[in-house]
Predict the structure of Pantothenate synthetase.
Amino acid sequence: MKIAENGSALGDVLKHSPGPRVLVPTMGAFHPGHISLMHKAREISGPEGTVVVSIFVNPIQFDRASDLEAYPRPMESDLAACEAAGVDVVFTPVADSMYFPDRSVTVTETLLSRDLCGAARPGHFDGVCTVVLKLFLLSGCDVAVFGEKDFQQLAIIRRMVRDLDVPVEIVSCPTMREADGLAMSSRNTRLTPEQRADAPRILRTLKAAAELGDVEAILARAREEIEASPLARIDYLSLVDAETLQPVTDLVRPAVLATAVFYGEVRLIDHVDL
Amino acid sequence: MKIAENGSALGDVLKHSPGPRVLVPTMGAFHPGHISLMHKAREISGPEGTVVVSIFVNPIQFDRASDLEAYPRPMESDLAACEAAGVDVVFTPVADSMYFPDRSVTVTETLLSRDLCGAARPGHFDGVCTVVLKLFLLSGCDVAVFGEKDFQQLAIIRRMVRDLDVPVEIVSCPTMREADGLAMSSRNTRLTPEQRADAPRILRTLKAAAELGDVEAILARAREEIEASPLARIDYLSLVDAETLQPVTDLVRPAVLATAVFYGEVRLIDHVDL
């Protein structure tokens, strides 16, 4: 396994690597969800192709300095996990090598990023689009693999690929969950034992509410059951169209019930399809 | 010479074309300036490489519908000129094949595009960046050739390539001029004989003023001499840093004296280096 610490080192390492080249863009702090993305990448690349994992806690997609600061960075165990998953190349740039101080070019998305995490985290998805495009172009990947847990991110990246003619195929993998249903997330390690015990209510609530069949009833029930916990604070709770991500008033087309919930300073997201 | 009318046709045509692949992005209506870019492209590609010329009047970089409407589109003679210049592939997409109706992703530049043509034409350079990135990615070019006449555009594209890690080398060619000094432009054909006779005053004025050695004197003299013509109306006249394109107050670093002048509805730009 080779490690590249900046773009030009990555270019050197990949210069003669065999295709197809499959990228897994991550912020590290791996849990089994990430590992499933790496296995999917290997499945796509085949034994002869090249699997690249990037580990980069991207500062320009954080709207809160405290969240960026607190984001876990267990580099040593992450590298061991990549090695164990049979990854060929790990790209671990520092922020200084990714962004010039007088950086002035950004990729912006104005439609799918309006609601949900976009409303709650201004600038977040522009930061995501910008770094993901950079990682695509630096790695020259043919395919990139993303988790479905961040479903808004996934929709926005597909939109970017479509609108900018980016020659990268996007593949997604299902959300991995703990035995009690909590969506796996690098942020889960920051929960107190009490918060951790309470957090499965998020999925449980979304699932139960989704059965109600009426937009207002679904939203009211879900809000009520999450707010029933003194530990949980809803950031947003929305029922949106699965394609446009705009809030819906009826359930004619496929929809997604999505929420972001704060436990103390830790923000967890989850969603169910309707 | 092959012609592709949408992105997927271009991909097919270029699939097995030999490298290096050199792109000349244009809006058509060729004059000798464009032809010089094609010759430069061939010089870079060598006889074995592939020269691609795109002809696309990009709607999203026009802020005035009248200008978009009036932009000349002499496709037949443009194709003949490409053929004569030994171009391998011409890409002539229609707007519908480049932009989805619900397009929501744009490349934005916030620093170099603030002044000059950026101030006068809101959204113009975001439209330029977006289409140029799309053309780079659709063509998969190794090198792209631009004219120096649009020096702000050139600076912004270089900045985009740097900030987004676009794997394309940018090469520029000097402004081509008529015998009387007027910068060649596709818009020159829209000048009346009277306007055409007056327009060489732009370069003459910039050159003379640039000799004065003092920022305020330069700007005052240039403004005075252009406004001396009843046919000319200044859109902007600025003395900017050659690298940051921000207005300067002294002449310590390399600077550019740049102007945009309206003759009726026709807007002409030119600049001189200091």
Summary: The CA atoms of residues 255 and 274 of chain B lie 5 Å apart. The beta strands of chain B are 2-4, 21-26, 50-55, 89-91, 105-109, 143-147, 169-173, 232-241, 255-263, 266-273.
